[in-house]
Amino acid sequence: MGDYTRNYTTTPVSTPGTTPAQMTASNTNKFPLFLHRNGQWAKKIGGKLTYFGKDRDAALQRFLNTKVTARKSAANRPDSPLFLHASGQWARKVNGRTIYLGKDKEAALDRWEQEKDSIERGEVRTAELTVKEICNQFLFTQEQRKASGELGERTWDDYKRLCKWIVNVLGAGTAVGGLQPVDFGRLRAAFAKGEGRPPSDKPARGKPGKPRPRKTRYSPVTLYGLIQHAKVVFNWAEENLLDKRIKYGSQFDKPSQSTLRKARAERGELMFERHEVKALLTIAKPQMRAMAYLGVNCALGNADCAALALDDLDLDGGWLDFPRVKTGIDRRCALWPETVEAIKAALAVRPAHKDDADARLVFITKYGRNWGPKTLTGDCPIAKETAKLLRKLKIARPRLGFYSLRRTFVTIAGEQVDREAIRTIGGWTKSANDMLARYEQRRPSDERLKAVSEHVRKWLTQDNQEQSADGDEQSCSAA
After folding, report:
1. 30 CB-near residues (< 8 Å, 6+ apart)
2. From CA 311, how far away is CA 294, in angstroms rounded?
3. Given this model, what pLDDT does residue 181 score?
4. How far is CA 64 from the centre of its chain?
5. pLDDT-based confidence at 346, cuts 50/70/90?
6. How far is residue 422's CA from residue 276's CA, in Å, rounded to a whole number?
7. HSE-CB of 219 using CA atoms within 13 angstroms
8. What is the pTM assigned to this prediction?
9. Strand order in the sheet with 41-45
10. pLDDT exceeds cutoff 50 at 256
11. What is the reported pLDDT for 96?
């Protein structure tokens, strides 16, 4: 690299009849830039063509300033065996494995010099890795999966809050290599009691600006999920960052199946009764009414309704073909006449969309946005609107919400016995141990799907049918 601070002649020597390009060619030893065909002065730097503008003197000055800055930066950044990872840590790639050495560059270089022989042999010392570091590394990889569409926004938010909770309980600077079963027992107790949980940014109901109060104790069902997700974090670190197994001990075991069954029995059913579904459909506005019909007719959940597109519906034929948002599993469902009518009524009053990405959606809020979650905590407009309706009907119960329509469908459809048809409508995957499902080569026929759908419809309209039958008998007897 030459001396970029030397003085260049700013006025080229010209002869009559020479073009700017010829002038530049005749003065290549004096002027470092060349005149590009687009009219700008340019220079190839590091294999990349860089343009400095059309004014010759200003281009030269800009080039000199750029080179001086680059030279100073190079002087302050000597060659290093390490690279700065996107997570903020200095790292080294060894045998296809990224070794993280900390955020302090000098300390990371010292550690590399002291341990490079053992690291290259695969004897990586991980005792210095902290709980905060492995959580940050885990979240970084999950964020990449979210950006590629492999991980949902809601799951990413859950992982983020869980990692904050783990750091609060175990301590940010705690060495992972020193964690013992007693530490995981302390984490399990914190999960069960809600201790150390990051504060929620959801406002308390009816109290804008005030955060929602945290629970003092979580159910065994919730505790089961928290422990399972926490093990996902530590197992990932064990596989990608650590050189030894993590000892959880029996103190970090998930609640037993018998405990879960008892907890579910105490919680009670999370489905709607027939009269509750009818009342919900009666008072709901057009869009919520159509969503409720889709919930009880096709087992659609909150995210499904928010992502449902016009192309997924065949209103003339009365069919829905819509992959489940959560898993991407294809599903097909016969639409009731009432559902088709409700969807058409919702489309008739559908507000104009503000984002072009929402143009194909069936449901748009009054603010011109989609019905998906609006905050990092999963604040779902569909869930909030459903809660308002349930309070208005005075049938609100803990954990009863829009998703309970999906549970209602499954419960009533289960009486039809055709489990494969129910699985196709709801978008559930087949069990790995279900050998009969492995041998089945085709999905259930449309007749089977219609039979399940019609069974649920008869359950919902049973009172109407009985009243109609009573009316016919009275008219016949009167005659």
Report:
1. 8, 9, 12
2. 15
3. 92
4. 47
5. very high
6. 23
7. 12
8. 0.60
9. 34-35, 41-45, 48-51
10. yes
11. 65
The owner of tokens 């058409």 is 344
pLDDT tens track for 202-254: 544 545 445 555 556 788 888 999 999 999 999 998 888 887 788 899 989 99
Domain 274-474 falls in which CATH fold?
Answer: hpI Integrase; Chain A (1.10.443)
- Residue 113 three-state SS: helix
pLDDT in tens, 34-90: 898 888 998 887 667 888 889 998 888 888 877 555 444 433 445 678 888 766 778
| CA distances to 5, 53, 67, 293, 378 from 2, in Å | 9, 22, 10, 74, 56
Three-state SS at 144? helix
pLDDT level of residue 15 (50, 70, 90 thresholds): very low
Helices (H), 320-461: 337-348, 381-393, 404-413, 419-426, 435-439, 446-460
Domain ranges of the chain: 20-76, 83-120, 131-267, 274-474
Per-residue tokens: 78: 């000597």
Q: Is the Cβ–Cβ distance between 225 and 195 less than 8 Å? A: no
* Residue with token string 């080294």: 92
- Six-digit token pair at 181? 């079963």
pLDDT classification of 465: cutoffs 50, 70, 90: low
Provide the Cα torsion 409, 410, 411, 414; round to 10°.
120
Q: What is the pLDDT of residue 86?
A: 67
| Polymer length of the chain | 479
For residues 425-445, give the mean pLDDT. Answer: 71
> Does residue 299 contact residue 408 with C-beta atoms inside 8 Å?
no
Q: Residues with Cβ < 8 Å from 70, sequence gap 6 or more?
A: 4
Q: Are 373 and 314 in contact (CB under 8 A)?
A: no
Q: Provide the token pair at 446.
A: 């449309």
**Token pair of 183, please?**
């530490």
Distance of alpha carbon 2 from alpha carbon 21, whole angstroms: 24
The C-alpha angle with vertex 249 and arms to 247 and 254, in degrees rounded to 5, equals 120
Is residue 472 within a helix (H) or strand (E), and if so which, with residue range? helix 462-478
Report the SS3 class of residue 269. coil
What is the number of helices (H) and of strands (E) in the chain?
A: 18, 11
Phi, then psi, of 16 in degrees rounded to 5: -60, 135
The yes-or-no verdict on residue 27 having pLDDT over 50 is no
- Give me the architecture of the 20-76 domain, per CATH: 2-Layer Sandwich (3.30)
The single residue listed with the structure tokens 């009573």 is 470
